[in-house]
Amino acid sequence: MADDTERSAAERRAWREGLGVALATSAYGVSFGALSVASGLDVWQTCVLSLVMFTGGSQFAFIGVIGAGGLAAAPAAIASAGLLGVRNVAYGLRMAPLIGTGPQTRILAPHFTIDESTAVALAHAEPRARRIGFWVTGIGIYLGWNLTTLLGALLGDVLGDPRQYGLDAAAAAAFLALLWPRLSQRQAIAVGVAAAVVATVLTPELLPGIPVLVAAAVAVIVGWTNWLGRRDAA
Q: What is the pLDDT of residues 113-122, one digit of tens each?
């Protein structure tokens, strides 16, 4: 009976976290819609980009390069977006054994395998709670992101510069809320700090996408070598 109660509590928590992250992240879609139109794409192009690409970092990288160089910069924009999207492959490898490999899952899950859905799923230990967290977060963000993208594209001129509203901070705060309870050991803190420092230093210097990949590599190396992990065990 106690096990059933704990599972039910974990599943409810997964629902709450998934919906909370979806709301926070979806709000940032307004910024993307407005910035995309300001960069030269029309409303329909902006909406199709969110429907098909659906990975916020890659989308912002794409419109950033297009906005700076116009259509002539399309190859560079695609390359930048692709580099940022590579991380989703790693997420897919991690999530596949957790959410199942049935035919429908193989078709649908890749489109919803993003930073947020992966983070919410991995924040739980109970298998069903992980699956609930993944699907609620992924589908919730997909619906919300596309609605707010349309809203931002239509109201871009009225909103002015959407960055002044700090909507990007809402998504970051949601991630921090998920991450914070996991930072109970020095090894986890070392991984997070090392990756954050590398990404911060390299972002102004390298093409979009490359700092993310380098930071991920640093996190893997720090985690694999178990730096500070032995002290925690002691």
A: 888 898 889 8
